[in-house]
Write a structure and sequence with these properties.
metal-binding; DUF34/NIF3_sf; six-stranded mixed sheet; Udp-n-acetylmuramoylalanyl-d-glutamate--2,6- Diaminopimelate Ligase, Chain: A, domain 1; 13 strands; 10 helices; DUF34/NIF3; metal ion binding
Length: 252
Amino acid sequence: MAIALTTLVAEAQRYLNADSISDYCPNGLQVEGRPNVQRLVTGVTASQALIDAAIEAEADVILVHHGYFWKGEDPCVTGMKQRRLKALLANDISVLAYHLPLDVHPDVGNNVQLAAQLGITVEGPLNPDNPRTVGLVGSLDEPQSARDFARRVHQVLGREPLLVEGQQMIRRIGWCTGGGQGYIDEAVAAGVDLYLTGEASEQTFHSAQENGISFIAAGHHATERYGVQALGEYLAKRFAIEHIFIDCANPI
């Protein structure tokens, strides 16, 4: 069964409340392809590898978390950008991208989906006083050591995380998928035992160590694989179309 591309886009916009969220890139339809959709491919980033795999899969639409046209980037269609867009346009494939709307959504968002994967009970926002803070706080059913929790992260995500180990047992956790290491001070203020995100900066080590909490960097790509899959499944069920998630390996 095929649906109109405009119908798919309108539902994604509505479901994610995308028009109300200020972001660093345009959310929604970034590249327009054929007018009807039967097969939807999802992935984390609209890289050349994902485009090539989507072409092979005969996709009509690629839905991603990391799309194109970021604020501050060179607007010229040259080099890598030209090759990507040329492949999409030549094969009449659309790109639909959602960044912050997919991070914060209460059902299919990256943060709630990662919590479900790791067995964390969501309690609320990391910083209720700052709505621009993209992150959550929650708890484990039973306290465990930082090393034990890091082993679970490794098992679930299939990637050995970077661990800065504190002394206390882990019960209360703050987290933000992707490049959320800058929120570690807000996590400390929230009283967490461990803060988890995708990436680490040099100063992250010192913030964790000197504030007496544990820290895990589990990979930007690895922590953001689940929201786009959940959104893809939602749209596939809503419109009875085919959905394929393609995970292009990324060690970062």
